[in-house]
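Entry 14. Ran structure prediction on the chain below.
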Amino acid sequence: MDAVYEEEQARSFANLEGTTVSYSLDGWGNVKSDHIVSVSITTEGGDTFLLDSIDTSGNSHTGEYLLSIAKNSIHKSKLNTRPPLEVS
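Output, structure tokens:
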């Protein structure tokens, strides 16, 4: 399953190289009451891709914690976007 996911992600991201994207975080609770945050990328054309889903159960959803999720996901995507991503 991991190989299929990685192959599909690489194929999807290849189409995003050099484009303008927006990163979004959204949180909810699943049927097991786990706290989940998803990270998605939306292109200027309106296409949306799921980048990551993180089980955040047991972590306070502070601004600092959510920022660390955002930074990790941006670095994980390794996209060459326009303008270049700057994460500090």
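The two ends are 33 Å apart (CA to CA). Will compare against last week's run tomorrow.
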